[in-house]
Amino acid sequence: MSQLLGLLNRAKYFLLFLFLELVSFYLIKKNNVQWDVTLFNSSNAVASRTMELSYGAKEYLHLKDENQSLAAENAVLREMMTAYQQSSETRPSYFYEADSLYADRFEFKIAKVVNSTTARTKNYVTIDKGTLDGIEPGMGVIGPKGVIGQVKSCSDHFSVVYSILHSDFRVSSEVVNKKLVENNETALGLCVWPGESRSLVEMNTVDKFKPVAVGDSVVTSSQNLIFPPNILVGNVSEVITPTNGAFHEISVKLATDFGGLTYVYVVQNRLSSEQQSLEEEALENE
Fold this sequence. Notes:
six-stranded antiparallel beta barrel; six-stranded antiparallel β-barrel; Thrombin, subunit H; MreC_beta-barrel_core; MreC; cell shape; 286 residues; single chain
């Protein structure tokens, strides 16, 4: 107790100063309306700024949940869009009409990228979903902007995907433009990475008499077992038509930035096993 009294005694002049300061502020506020309004506005500004910073911090902390929610919503929308595109043909229904099972054969599973490479000749992407989540080798993988690659191997909780930036990966693709649609033509080819820029692939075996121009879209074709049709691969950045060759030499700028992957969608084709087994049986019986 004596120590407390001694401390108060040593600080008595400082405490008196604080008391007089508070009294003076009170008297100024009471007798000066302009100062009172200024103080009120300043305190409001400080309070609103504090609330703004607090709200911003809460938003930032919830970004992960928001991103996961948006990715889940996108997966559902992709399934609906793919089913609609498969069941809606530009040709008359008497020519071709897909049944509902075939149109609804693709399912999308969300996964997060935990590792990736871009500087090798055979590049991979690792995702945080494995066999326990229904992922199997051979499934296609796409991102928010386009094609990523194909699942190579799986453990219980992870999967390794060889990306389109892999020298052994091929994806059946087609060029899309107004002239081809008007002529009811398809410009089919294979997209393959030449092992140079991580933003460019080559598209081979496109007939040189098919109209192809810089800026045309390149999408996955309908002759594809692992990807739904019309998934963007990229856009034509260069076209060379040799005089003696039979095919265009096409460079495609990839739609996906492989240096900034976060969430991807693993594509399951529910009818792939049936189609594969039938095709293998047909080959064996030749």
